[in-house]
Amino acid sequence: MSIRIIAVMAILLFSPFIRADEGMWLLGNLNKQTRLAMKELGLQLPVDKLYSPKKPCLADAVVSFGGFCSGVVVSDDGLVFTNHHCGFNSVQQHSSVEHDYLKDGFVARNRSEELPNPELYVRFLLRTENVTKRILKATKPSMSESERQIAVDSLMLLIGNEVSDKDSTLVGVVDAYYAGNEFWLSVYRDFNDVRLVFAPPSSIGKLGWDTDNWVWPRHTGDFCVFRIYADKNNRPANYSPDNVPYKAPYVAPISLDGYKEGSFCMTLGYPGMTERFLSSFGVEERMAGMNQAMIDVRGVKQAIWKREMDVRPDIRIKYASKYDESSNYWKNSIGMNKAIRQLKVLDKKRAAEATIREWIQQTPSEREKLLHLFSSLELNYKNRREANRAMAYFGESFINGPELIQLALEILNFDFEAEQEQVVARLNKLMEKYGNMDLSIDKEVFAALLKEYRSKVGPEYLPSLYQAIDSAYAGNERAYVDSLYAHTQIATPRGFQRFLERDTTYHLIEDPAIALGIDLIVKYYDMNHGVSAVSQEIDRDERLLNDALRRMEADRNFYPDANATMRLSFGTVCGYSPFDGTVYDYYTTVKGIFEKVHEHKGDPDFAVQPDILSLFASGDFGRYADEKGDMKVCFISNNDITGGNSGSAMFNARGELLGLAFDGNWEAMSSDIVFEPGLQRCIGVDVRYMLFIIEKYGKAGELIKELNINASK
What we know:
- By secondary structure, this protein is α+β, with helices and mostly antiparallel strands.
- Helices cover 46% and strands 15% of the residues.
- Helix 1 packs antiparallel against helix 11 (345-362) and helix 17 packs across helix 19.
- The strands form 4 sheets. Strands 2, 3, 4, 5, 6, 7, 8, 9, 10, 11 and 12 form an 11-stranded antiparallel sheet that branches. It has an 8-stranded antiparallel sheet with strand order 1-15-14-20-21-22-19-18.
- The longest helix is centred in the middle third of the chain and has 30 residues, at 280-309.
- The N and C termini lie far apart (58 Å).
């Protein structure tokens, strides 16, 4: 077999090169091949209108929302559309049993009623710059992987700091691409005064909850509205009543014309992380480690939370946001592992690796450098398998488990000597965590997770607290937990206050919860340290594999894995066939809401208020109706997205807003590892449905007047 044929086979199997619907592209690095593909699919907007560091462009309207989602500016007065689940924590913080904005929704009738969110920020991308040459100059072939990483990390930090040293309103961040083979600087400006303006009831914004999460067909109105504020000079400023709405350099226009099957669609946002170049050994490790730990441990924790949330309104409000965050990736992990098996992703990866091995063997220059690459990967992943799995369960069971432990770790890491703004922000976060903790629930969770962790790992990975459980409490986890909570002071209002007041008579290290937190940190460090050398070799080998793939097909148009930087994806609006004999359409309507309410009668996750149903039943959708007079709710495209894309703007060929991306589909949950063109879909909420809810249900016509709405009909 020729080297050329081998290379093509490997690339097809690994698949991180351009297809019309695949790829999360760097806006500052769009080559001719990518631009041509967009034009061929129907893009009408000039490409330089998508991104330009020198003049207003579409990317100027797109924000990173809180560092965990995306959003889009839609008015001259700083209105931002994002997903309901992205704003869910903010809505929860402002809710109470008396003012249940989660259940009833929220509308600010004027700007004085807009609610501030101290920990929330939005981030605008100003420019990007390739700094690969500068970074790699600091590395030498003779360096160990540890030495290389130290040199690279130091220079990445230095280059980023140079930006803020020149302008304190800017943030410079250098990110690694292609497994550490390339490096790009992103320059941002952050705005910290972001206020809640509108949130629909959860019966709209969260319709279907866990049952419908990651599933199509979907009928969820997953959107929220916020407003960005700035000082009187339109510069970033912390919250102040004197701040004014921010004037963005570009405001996204909104289309009421909708879409048809085959319509061009592009998504701009901040996808979190994909690992499509990852070796088969790495995929196996993720399945058995991080994914399975999330599935097992979060399943136990969430069952306890949900039981109490369903019967206690105060707990439903307190735990709503953390349950939502936890369950989202719990179900994602279930779906990912299932899809990897069903779609035979590991078989595809192994076939590709066999082909690459053959290419290496037939290429003298590569054989000299990479002869032992795959044997090294296999051996090192094998050597850290058990420790990696244990650390995944440890992280879920303890570090991300009982809220008492999380609180103790936050206190241990608290720095009262930091800058005042940071101190205040962290204090607010601590007080929020403390205020949202129910001790009786947390004790039950802690005891259950202690049992779960012991059942999943070997005895060498058990922290010392298990010795105390076995010797002092006869193996009774609940007795140990009850004693711990009875003797710690940080779980009491008085003890927590003593910490906040820096009471010198309070010996923090002697508190049993704090002492346990220290023991757990030490145990985790020991586990990680035991495989640090192996992990460094894995990082090196994955980087070498990534680089080899791109050398092998240098003429291919590779895109880098997602890494929470702004990306463009594009494709078309289209349905799909999930399995034989079934075809899913590319949109849903309010008719499906009635069907789901009827099908799930009695299930609170599908309960919709009668006045909302009456509004839908009236059929009076006005200018927001489609050409048939129906109200579309959601739609799908084959745009390439992942976590972090939530809230991403979905634009038509003219750069007009069609809706917001908010989810992927169950059949292609392996999408972080491999793109499945026939199955993978991006689920978006239709902007016309959003505006209908704002105007007709929320009676917030003043917000509609702020928008730049285009319609040909």
